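Appendix B, Record 12. Input sequence as logged:
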Amino acid sequence: MADIKIELTKLNDEQIKPVLDTDGAVLVIAGAGSGKTRVLTCRIAYLVKEKGVSPRNVMAITFTNKAAGEMKERLEKLVGDVSEMWVSTIHSMCVRILRRDIDKLGYDKNFTIYDDTDKEKVLKRVIEELGIDNDNMLKTAKSVISNAKNDCLNADEWRDTVQEIRFKEDLYQIFKAYENQLARSNSLDFDDLLYKTYLLFETRKDVADYYANKFEYVHIDEFQDTNSVQFVS
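Logged structural output:
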């Protein structure tokens, strides 16, 4: 295991500042290859080794499985066992939360996650059952539903807030039928992982409070290209 004090001496003056500043929010603005992830992992190690923070109270979120794996490896070298620390992508984090608490939204915890192919199959079937004859409807409906969930909107909210667009009523009916089908099969699509977590936190204060108290230190690696549901979650 690396000596955290020795690791800190390898950081420059600007890098060391966010590592040692452990009270309140800290924002680091830096370009690619400037050592952001190194600063983040050193900060976590400093919290655990020097400030006595429990690994179970630390979360680190990144944007790819590869990056999450690399971050875990770095942290293991700095602090040892990280099994109680949440180090993952934001989607993996949401799956973990939903496996524990999605029953509070009326789902079984053993839900299925639909991939893109599964989603298209369900949408095709829904469009056929509704008798909607439009060659571009599948592509349009898929985009509308995904964008709506990324904006934290269900089908009714989407219909009430969206500007007038072509085939709005057809798209609404598809959206509703698609969501009903997912609910009947106890399934979520990829966008639901964030959207349902958002709903869980919004509607169940006890769940939101549990995670707010559990994770005293939340680290986000590369806060960019963030949509509404990611931001509010």
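The beta strands are 58-62, 86-89, 112-114, 187-189, 217-220.
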